[in-house]
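Reply to dn_fold:

You asked what the input looked like. This is it:
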Amino acid sequence: MWFFFEKSGKNFFITVTLNNSAVADFTGRLMRWGLFAL
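and this is what came back:
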């Protein structure tokens, strides 16, 4: 999963480390939207 964050950029990766819980929820929703897109 982290390779996706690496591609997104260092800033996003830093945001993930700073806001772990909030980004975890956001990532969950994002992955669900990704599944719907597929």
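Helices lie at 2-8, 10-18, 20-37.
Hope that clears it up.
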